[in-house]
Write a structure and sequence with these properties.
This protein starts with a helix and ends with a helix. It is 64% helix and 3% strand. It folds into three domains: 87 residues, no CATH class; 81 residues, no CATH class; 108 residues, no CATH class. The C terminus is likely disordered. By secondary structure, the protein is mostly helical.
Amino acid sequence: MASVLSSLRYLFADILGDDDCARPFLPDGLPAMAVPVVSDGIHLLMDYQGPSYAQLYVDRIKRFVGRHEVDSGMLCRIARLLAQRMAYEDPIRSAQLKLAELGSHAARRSEPKRFRIDELVGALPETAADPLFVVCEKLGWLHRQVALRFPAGSRAGVRSLKLGAGLRRWRLFSSRYAEERAWVERWLHMVTRCLDKQPASAAAVVETATMVQGYGEAYRHGIADWHAIIDGLVKPTFDGVLPIADLAGAIAEARAAVMPDPRQVALKRAIAEIRARALAVQPSANAAE
């Protein structure tokens, strides 16, 4: 409920315009080792979206503060990966970062970034994006890549960067943000379930967040591979459907089979083999009883 209320607070703050919320405080009971990590996360997300969004980050961290299964190292890792994922890369972020470079030599160079069209459209508010999605899907353009340059060497270039960065105000109404929010909540939910069911494997579930990075094809492949491992191994284990005693080992084995293959042939084969071994053990155990 606290997470829902926090989500509503920053959403309504964005609807009304300026986010006047104060910078969030560190969670009570935060270990000293985690203080700089969480502070960095707050600073990052203040710059990325605003204080209300940073407060959501703090509220999410609070779920793990004080749990005896979560030591300082694991809490730091959760905090660091959560901040990185909440500050996901989109065209708005690229414009923000380029503006921050103004005045430096690097700002004069325009390195193109290859975003997929569905990522460009997905960065817009859903009311504007939905009809564009329909048109692009009919034309077969959704998965096409577009090389975007972020010029800062002219007044026109700076104006275009400011326009792109200004879309930050509407980021939380975009379809891309809805996808990211659902992914983050599912990842955190899986970490929580692992702490309850198999705490020894929790670090491996936490580290699965590193599979989802960047933008373009790499991002899409990473998130598809993540869902394959979660749906094929992790969730069935927590649901009691798949008797995997060493979930961390199973995750490591599956991740070793990940390749840049949209068909996921090697990964699906590895998951099937892990499942078959786990299920083969169960009848033997029952017979022994």
